[in-house]
Amino acid sequence: MTAKHLQDTVKLSNGAQMPWFGLGVFKVEDGPQLAEAVKTAIGHGYRSIDTAAIYDNETSVGQGLREAMREHRLARESLFVTSKVWNADLGYESALAAYETSLAKLGLDYLDLYLIHWPVQGKYKEAWRALEKLYKTGRVKAIGVSNFHIHHLEDLLRDAEIKPMVNQVEFHPRLTQPELRAFCAAHGIQLEAWSPLMQGGLLDNPTIADIAAKYGKSAAQIILRWDLQHGVVTIPKSTKERRMIENASVFDFELSPEDMARIDGLNRHRRVGPDPDNFDF
């Protein structure tokens, strides 16, 4: 099913409801501007906010969430908040402690989704045991991974009691990851896109510009709509109100199968971020 509204959700394998569309805050500095951006996004109907320990901005995200809940009289349950455990904390006890640190910075009682940020070899299974404990004891509503290739998922699933509910990966028209999409779909793992706009690198693409002109939409809107029609949750980053509104205005049109195929044809297996098989941090 393709989302029809900004607050439409997809049901994860455990029954939790995750918004199809959210706000990412990667590389946004901790401070008043970020708190205001989070509050502004929620004011415009966003209900999902994605952060991470390594972004070093959970404090301002939490401030923005609390201000928005007060101002718009929203229950905590109406929001979907994601954070991620960083590589340095991928032990069992250290991942449990990292979760408590993230919660304290955010000023929340629980997270809706907690992810292992990168598949550090020899470490992610211990961290996954910690996430399973957090989930089984009701501390987090859903658990998942980020940047996991198929072989990482296969390795994790061999010993996991609970399968990941989400895999957040780099995904955009230059990196369409069809095999990973098919694997996740077959295993009930929801794919989520980070860097859906390729850090702006696709906004001048002639094919996308041509399709954008046809629908009377921006290049960004075309790409984000393409994500949704592929059944991929997407979290574009912005601190500008105008851009947040533009990004979220993707529910009043539908790309034709032909135009979906044209965008699919832009795939070059090209990354703007590190390859999960070859990173050193």
UniProtKB/TrEMBL annotation:
Pfam families: Aldo_ket_red (PF00248)
GO molecular function, one term: oxidoreductase activity, acting on the CH-OH group of donors, NAD or NADP as acceptor
Site keyed Lowers pKa of active site Tyr: positions: K84
All residue ranges annotated as the NADP-dependent oxidoreductase domain in the record: 32-267
SUPFAM superfamilies xref list: NAD(P)-linked oxidoreductase (SSF51430)
Entry annotation: catalytic residues: Y55
The keyword NADP is assigned to this record: yes
UniProt xrefs under InterPro entries: AKR, AKR5G, Aldo/ket_reductase_CS, NAD(P)_OxRdtase_dom_sf, NADP_OxRdtase_dom
NADP as UniProt keyword: yes
Residues given in the record as substrate binding sites: H117
Entry superkingdom: Bacteria
Keyword line: NADP, Oxidoreductase
Family per record: Belongs to the aldo/keto reductase family.
Name the UniProt record assigns to this protein: Aldo/keto reductase
